[in-house]
What does this fold into?
Amino acid sequence: MKRKIWTSRLACLALVGVTVGGVAWAAGTQGSQTDPLVTLSYLNEVAVPDIMAQVDQKLDQREAELTQKLQTAGGSSASFEAVKVPAGKSLVLTAGTQVVLRSGTVKSTSSLTDLTSGMGSSTANLTANHLYLATAGGQKITASTELTVLVQGSYTVE
It folds into this structure.
């Protein structure tokens, strides 16, 4: 009887050893260069094109939304307009209006924010080709000589 117990124990131990060895061998060969878990052809032919199609669809949808928002906001306010201001007249700006001095001399101005240099402008001079922002409504630029400015936003000439 003792011999049967040792034989069955030895058989069980051998079976466990073969099973553990087989699992270790199978785990060591999976995902290798010769047998990858995901093939390169699957990635190139199926996965990447599917992802790119989804990205293109999302981008087209977002572009359509932004185009619609831009059109409802008014297309002309999204671009600069060249404006001539006669000598002695003033350009009155609303809040958020952007101005670029192209030519001419400024007699006086309300304090505008110089977005090019990041500072507030003086009340006497504007620098040519700098972008200025009117931070409050009713800010004025008075011309000493005829001015040519680029304006984006609402304004009046008085």
Notes: The radius of gyration is 38 Å. The chain is about 40% helix and 25% strand.
